[in-house]
Amino acid sequence: MKTIIYGLRVCLLSGAILTMPLGHLFAQGPNVSGFIDVGYNYNFNKPINHTNDLRVFDRTHNNFTIQAAEIVWEGTSNNVDYRIDVDYGSDAAGTQSAGFTNAALQIDLQQAYITAPCPTFEKGHLTAGKWATLLGREVIESGNNDNFSRSYLFGYSIPFTHTGVKYDYKASAKHEFALGVVNGWDNLTDNNKSKSFIGGLGFTPSDSLSFYLAGIYGPETGQEGSGKGAVTLSADLTVSEKLTLKANGVYGSEEGASALTPGDESTWMGVAAYAVIRLCEKNSIALRYENFDDTDGSQLGLAANEQGTIGGQVVNELTLTFQNKKDSMIKRLEWRHDLSNRQPFIDDKGMTQDSQSIIAFEMILTF
């Protein structure tokens, strides 16, 4: 029986053509890895709808949840790298791109891309496909963050993934940048005739200090000329072997997206500060505080205050996470308190409250 070999050809910079015969794609692999993430949340408001309001992934009260089960295939073929990330679980339902399956299935093709050396610049490479965003400092995989729950800045102010092409260049040990053209925010298929542009700039002045500036801008409402953008700045400082400080800031805007005054521009902004204390080789404590201002209501939605006045929200949260990590197992115990200037949180009587406190437990096994 004849073997049929399909060729995948991707046009890259300056007319260069990269050919990847699919018959050889897995000749050097793939290397398979992944993890299973199981969580439990208890909301002291005991919400009647069993929902932890304004939380990104950990949304279910008093329930054991498969947060994520992820399989990663990656390798190299003909000097070209490839990677595919497939996720299942409640996290996957929240990260799905528009145009891919539906939230009820809880399945997501989080990443699927190829990366090739750039024929023009020796230290650069081109990536085409679907990949995680450059913006922000937290990531989709909980185990790669310091806390179990995600921040408002991660969940509501920036995209999760992009589909498109980007160019990365590492100028030196201290400087790197990335520039790309994408379909937009979390969509496999563009919703208009224009593209969004994304970029990042990294600066590492020393082994203990690093900065990363990233941004995106383009028409994302389906209407030509209607722009949506965000800029984030992240910083990491290693004070000692026992203490690491981190920070993240965001500013975003979208034309005609205000929920409070329809037709007006919406803006949102926020800051988050982190401190990670290593108690010993296996145990650590992570503290996070953040403030997120969504006065126009485009990201968190509108809510009423105690007097019944409807408006956008300014929210604060404080999170304390204890972590034990041994070999391939991570165990976490977390307490988090959310506070809003409105009353978006539901209690056991169906009444609205301005705050909620949640205690959570998480186990992650990597392989």
N-to-C span: 37 Å
How would a crystallographer describe the biggest sheet? 16 strands, antiparallel, barrel
Q: What name goes with the CATH superfamily?
A: Porin
By DSSP, the count of extended strands is 22
**Helix-strand pattern, N to C?**
EEEEEHEEHEEEEEEEEEEEEEEE
Radius of gyration using CA atoms only:
22 Å
Low-confidence stretches: 1-27
Fraction of residues in helices? under 10%
Q: Strand share of the residues?
A: over 45%
CATH first level: Mainly Beta
What would your notes on this structure say?
The protein has helices spanning 90-95, 152-156, and strands at residues 7-11, 17-21, 31-43, 63-77, 80-88, 107-117, 124-132, 161-170, 175-182, 196-206, 209-219, 227-238, 243-254, 266-278, 283-294, 303-304, 310-311, 313-326, 329-340, 345-346, 352-353, 355-366. It is mainly β. The chain has a single domain, classed as Porin. The strands form 4 sheets. The chain has a 16-stranded antiparallel β-barrel. A hairpin with a 4-residue loop joins β14 and β15 (283-294). The radius of gyration is 22 Å and the shape is globular. The relative contact order is 0.14. The model is unreliable at 1-27 (pLDDT under 50).
